[in-house]
Design a protein that fits this description.
The protein is of the alpha/beta class. It is built from 8 helices and 7 strands, in the order βαβαβαβαβαβαααβ. It has a 7-stranded parallel beta sheet with strand order 3-2-1-4-5-6-7, with helices on both faces. α2 links the parallel β2 and β3. The longest helix is centred in the middle third of the chain and has 22 residues.
Length: about 290
């Protein structure tokens, strides 16, 4: 009898570890589960094309794989993590779909425009836009947050979402979907993630307004709000002792895996969610968003 893929997540917390930002999935211990052995598609996104920021690793990689196995071609954007991006491209292409990789900094408006231009050139349209890439740093006191770091957080998490959405919408057919990655931090902010948590609340607000703005075009906009998910952002931006205990404060007592988040993105991208817009889908391991 084969093991339920979810059973392997029931294990002791990850050991303490540290990486330099932005972090590499290939260097994490343990490696995150992005669904390569467990995700089974059923044609929910057949013939669709998707743009996914931060698609090289973590949540973005899991979403790219799930979308591909549901029948979509994908473009993944990433900062500079070439080895991780190659792995995402490998699993997408092994699923029989096209994967376009675009490196660069989404905190620059011109680069965001180039991402959408490339997607339109490759696919002729953008059915799904997943604004997933984010920047955070952990600081114990507001005096430790430089203006440069504050600007980088806002430009990566908010400006890029605005620029990419603005460029993508004219190329979205009716039935298109914008999916933004918010966070449990939007409703339950951790003080050490002050700028990051602020941007995640803004993402939810932006999504609610965008859903109303785009409704007449037949385009939906929704959020996914993850709880603690084991991605390269964690060892790259948090102190080692916090990495070791990461995820222990939720009801399920552990960090989630990217593979456990991908189905929420598939739902919001597919016609199964045809009457869902302006919503936030929480995937938090039992920590409520109220």
């Amino acid at each position: 009898m084969s093991q339920d893929p979810r059973e392997k997540h029931e294990k002791p917390p990850q050991p303490s570890q540290r990486q330099e930002p932005p972090g590499l999935e290939a260097e994490m211990d343990p490696r995150p589960d992005y669904g390569e052995k467990s995700y089974r598609g059923s044609g929910k996104l057949e013939g669709k094309s998707a743009v996914i920021t931060g698609g090289d690793s973590g949540i973005g990689r899991a979403v790219a794989l799930a979308f591909a196995r549901e029948g979509a071609d994908v473009l993944i954007s990433y900062l500079s993590e070439e080895s991780d991006a190659r792995e995402t491209a490998r699993v997408v292409e092994a699923s029989g779909r096209k994967c376009v990789t675009v490196a660069g900094d989404i905190s620059e408006e011109a680069h965001c425009k180039s991402i959408i231009d490339r997607a339109v050139k490759e696919f002729g349209k953008v059915d799904i836009l997943v604004n997933n890439a984010a920047f955070q740093m952990s600081r114990d006191d507001i005096s430790e947050i430089s203006t440069e770091e504050f600007d980088r957080t806002i430009k990566t998490n908010l400006y890029a979402m605005f620029w990419l959405t603005k460029e993508a919408v004219p190329h979205m057919p009716r039935g298109g979907a914008v999916i933004n990655t918010s966070s449990i931090q939007a409703d339950n902010p951790s003080p050490e993630l002050l700028p990051y948590a602020m941007t995640k609340a803004a993402i939810q607000n932006f999504t609610g307004g965008l859903a109303q703005m785009l409704g007449k075009e037949g385009i939906r906009a929704n959020c996914v709000a993850p709880g603690p998910i084991w991605t390269p952002l964690i060892p790259a931006t948090m102190p080692e002792e916090k990495v070791k205990s990461f995820g222990k404060n939720v009801a399920l007592g552990r960090a989630g895996q990217p593979a456990e988040l991908a189905p929420a993105f598939v739902l919001l991208a597919s016609s199964d969610a045809s009457y869902m817009s302006g919503a936030t889908v929480a995937v938090t391991g039992g920590k409520p968003l109220i």
